[in-house]
Amino acid sequence: MPKFSVIIPVYNRPQEVDELLHSLSEVNYTDFEVIIIEDGSHLQSEDICNGYKKNLDIHYHYQKNSGPGPARNEGAKHATGDILIFFDSDCLIPENYFTVVEKSFVDSDCYGGPDRAHESFNNIQKAINYSMTSILTTGGIRGGNKKMDKFYPRSFNLGIKKQVFMELKGFKKLRFGEDLDFSMRLIEKGHTSILIEDAWVFHKRRNNFKSFFKQVYNSGIARINLNFRHPGTIKMVHWIPAIFTIAYPVWIIISLLVPNTGWLLLIPPIAFLTHALFTIKEVIPSFLATITSFTQIFGYGSGFLSAFIKRNLLKQGEFNAFEENFYQ
């Protein structure tokens, strides 16, 4: 059996670490180690990690705050496995995850898996999960069966041969989009990656609309920044939220001036609600999903447009937003 090294960067999330480690302690696979990299947290997880040493081969390391990319690189330095697996701290791992990966990850250098909502997640988390995975809001580029761009593994659920990871020199020191940059460099170097649809994780995501908006706004900025690092990687699917961000308010104005056109404004929310009801199968999260879908599209679209103007038109350098209060 292969030896997996599970690497988890964490910043001020001891409760999440506890829940993640609990899920790992219940998987039906034993040949793996867990490496926790505490990235300069003041709310630390060391005591929690020590509590799982009887059930897991777990190693805890503290470092000065450097960001998620360097934290993952630090974890790789301590890894003894042939395959590195990266999870975010807000994930829960199903019991058959490693057996699925062992069976499916054979001929490729890297894999990614999708994410979904656990039944215990609150209504906002379920709604955000919908908007972050729905074909209507993402074009399927985060791991759906049908997609409008090539699949790039994301760091919340990513596995890679250690030798290949070291060849790529790990993740760059980017605050946002570091996983996409990594996957793009992987493909540019001629390595192969696959989507393992059954290697999914439960992913909690944000817990309120404000923090979710900050996240997707920075994702829009990151997409422009990444295009400067990897020219030609922006596709039409990435422009759709920006176009919608401009077009929808314009149509609101038009509907006030032109009779019998306002009903067209109802098409997007009705589409989101209907699809969410069929997908989530719960009423309250589905109505909230309509809000989170608009939040995601307008957040991503406005971040994308802001970065396009600053970087392409004003010729400014790389930047992020909300750096001082991103976690507030």
Automatic annotation (TrEMBL):
This is Glycosyltransferase. Its EC number is 2.4.-.-. Keywords: Glycosyltransferase, Membrane, Transferase, Transmembrane, Transmembrane helix. The keyword 4Fe-4S does not apply. Gene3D superfamilies: Spore Coat Polysaccharide Biosynthesis Protein SpsA, Chain A. Residues 5-133 form the Glycosyltransferase 2-like domain. One of its GO terms (molecular function) is hexosyltransferase activity. The chain crosses the membrane at residues 236-257, 263-280, 287-309. InterPro entries: Glyco_trans_2-like, Nucleotide-diphossugar_trans.
